[in-house]
Amino acid sequence: MQNITDIEPAQDLSSFIGTHFIYTYANGWKYEWYARNAHTCDYRIHQGLVGGRWVTHQTMTLVQVGAGLFKVDWHEPTGTCVSLLFDVAQRRLHGTIFFPQWIAGEGQHPEKTICYQNDFIEDMNRFRDEGPAYPYVIISEFAKITFMEQRGADNDEVINAAPGQLPDGFLDRQN
């Protein structure tokens, strides 16, 4: 039997932690994401099904898949699951979002999640529990990273306001 150390690559997360990204999915949805530390992330959703939503201190798992490749996964109080694979060198990512039926199903209510989630955890849990959850609506898309900067770990200034409170041109920055 193969030893796990033979298949798991070295885990040097130092270049990824503290990185702030702005990216646009092929379907036009615009997101912003920050690797707060090895166990939590912050994000804002600017355009898309739940555009206007933002979250800080979201618990996640983070692994390095290979050189310049990082994968993050998390499960939200809403019941939504997210998996992102960042290819930093190619400035792209692949995201898969598993939306419960109550958010993304026909006739459902994505607008209930458009808030600063941290202030409404009990509501998110209640909406999740009221469901329905299944069948999940799975959205799998590639995105282009249009902006990337190192902001240091645990920086409360990176994602600190609602998407609608940002200055004009904020999302248009490119590097």
- Report the sheet-strand fraction: 35-45%
Helix content: 10-25%
Level-2 CATH architecture: Beta Barrel
CATH class label: Mainly Beta
Q: Which secondary-structure class do the elements indicate?
A: mainly beta
Main sheet summary: 9 strands, antiparallel
Total individual domains = 1
Overall geometry: globular
Query: Looking at CATH, which topology would you report?
Result: Lipocalin
Tell me how many strands there are: 9
The neighbouring-strand order within the major sheet is 4-3-2-1-9-8-7-6-5
Order of SSEs: HEEEEEEEEHHE
CATH superfamily: Calycin beta-barrel core domain
Query: What separation lies between the terminal Cα atoms?
Result: 46 Å
Which keywords apply here?
mainly beta; Lipocalin; nine-stranded antiparallel β-sheet; globular
In short:
A nine-stranded antiparallel β-sheet has the order 4-3-2-1-9-8-7-6-5.
Report what the structure shows:
- The chain is globular, with a radius of gyration of 16 Å.
- The chain is built from 3 helices and 9 strands.
- It is 10% helix and 38% strand.
- Strands 4-3-2-1-9-8-7-6-5 form a 9-stranded antiparallel beta sheet.
- It has one domain (18-159): Beta Barrel (Lipocalin).
- The mean pLDDT is 95.
- The chain has helices at 4-7, 101-104, 121-130; strands spanning 19-25, 30-34, 40-45, 54-59, 61-66, 69-75, 81-87, 92-99, 137-150.
- It is mainly β.
Helix-strand blueprint:
Blueprint: H1 4-7, E1 19-25, E2 30-34, E3 40-45, E4 54-59, E5 61-66, E6 69-75, E7 81-87, E8 92-99, H2 101-104, H3 121-130, E9 137-150
Antiparallel strand pairs: 1-2, 1-9, 2-3, 3-4, 5-6, 6-7, 7-8, 8-9
